[in-house]
Design brief:
Length: about 200
């Protein structure tokens, strides 16, 4: 049995990468082929989130202890919270021939791709910066200072798109998902995607 591959989705906040990540995992076409990489975090659970399903919620002490032991493929600090990708379950899935889907930032993607050179990197972005700013502002959950900082980080992350194998422009969720599915079928599952063509009736 061949080992699976790591698939990395990256993109700035507001790009829609998390929504696409969830849609892939729920899709009948991919849910038996892709394994979710459950991230660990020190932030508090949001409404409806559960430990072991959405994240591994850890205390800061627990997280840093695991980090020192080398338990994470990559980790990062976002504002006051830490996030990390546990290594053990990812390697176990890969050995079983499953491909593992990671939704991580550009710094984490760089670290993981260095450890797994055959990883497939896909960058998700909005059509324009104005679209991204509009999506971020709609959240309305941050102070002006935090919003400006997040937008600044997003602009920096966009510069890294050129280092990815594929770029998916999320002008609409349906179009972005279609493009992402085509990439996975071609690059990972070696499935030919046929496009429907219309034929004019002969008279």
């Amino acid at each position: 049995m061949e080992n699976g591959r790591i698939v990395i989705l990256s993109g700035p906040s507001g790009s829609g990468k998390t929504t696409l990540h969830q849609k892939l995992l729920k899709s009948p076409a991919f849910k038996t082929k892709l394994v979710k990489s459950l991230s660990a975090t020190t932030r508090l659970p949001r409404a409806g989130e559960k430990h072991g399903r959405d994240y591994l919620f850890l205390s800061k002490e627990e997280f840093l202890d695991k980090q020192k032991q080398g338990d994470f493929l990559e980790f990062m600090q976002v504002f006051e919270n830490y996030y990390g990708t546990p290594k053990e379950k990812v390697d176990a899935a890969l050995k079983k021939g499953k491909s593992v889907l990671l939704c991580i930032d550009v710094k984490g993607a760089k670290v993981v791709s260095q450890k797994y050179p055959d990883a497939l990197l896909v960058f998700v972005k909005t059509p324009t910066l104005a679209d991204l700013k509009k999506r971020l502002s709609k959240r309305g959950t941050e102070s002006p200072e935090d919003f400006n900082l997040r937008f600044k980080i997003a602009r920096e992350e966009l510069k890294e798109a050129k280092h990815y194998h594929h770029i998916v422009v999320n002008d609409s969720l349906a179009h972005a998902y279609r493009d992402l599915a085509r990439i996975l079928n071609k690059e990972i599952f070696k499935k030919t995607v046929l496009r429907k063509t219309s034929r004019k009736k002969s008279r």
